[in-house]
Amino acid sequence: MPKEADVIGGLPSHVAIIMDGNGRWALKRGLPRIMGHYAGVKAIERTVRAAADIGIPHLSLYAFSTENWRRPLPEVKGLMNLFRYYVRKKTKELCNEGVRLRFAGRIWELSEDIRKIVREAENATAGGGRLDLVVCFNYGGRQELLDAINSIVEEDGREGAVTEEAIRSHLYLPDLPDPDLIIRTSGEHRLSNFWLWQSSYSELYFTSTLWPDFGKEELDSALEDYAKRERRFGAV
Ligand code: FPP
Fold first, then answer.
1. Which of 97, 145, 196, 232 is 20 to 30 A from 167 via CA?
2. In a domain, 234, yes or no
């Protein structure tokens, strides 16, 4: 259940972002789509810094969905290369800034070198206490639920019905609080298979800003909007 501080507004404990609009940002400039993703990485850097400065404890970013494999192969390869380059390059800096980097998704399906990069980044930043940064990569909400349910039913000696607590404790990151606020950029109004279990009572914020143009000011606007919301979690 959410903490009381979340219910009465103020700062969200977990902000989740669907980073959308990289392709359109590039198209508007006559650039290849991958350049939009490069610019998207700059927006990630600005947003992570701003979130850490503001004091948001958990930030999650939807970087690659289980459906994104359907994109043209050069774009998929470009995104994988960007991930390789960026995670390796930034690990030390994140470590110095007290940012703990974690990943959510079917990491085991990724290539061995990427799995190694993920392991090393998670180990190197494990002590970070300033911001918990979760990158959702090869992530799908339905897949996460299937993975949780399958691991429950495969457990030795399991008896009785599957409970809400059992599902929650088998999610990819069971200790991560549900997102209080989900932001989606680029004017689309969908969750697109993001945090399906966890988003039941999340506040949603949509902006027409394309992800590469996102930064501190946009984050501040979303937080200001969130602070005005009355969260009831099903109660009157
Ligand atoms: C959505 O824009 C964006 C993505 C699918 C990828 C987001 C990835 C990054 C910002 C960089 C890679 C991540 C890391 C952690 C290095 P879109 O391409 O769907 O935009 P469009 O809707 O305008 O086509």
1. 232
2. no
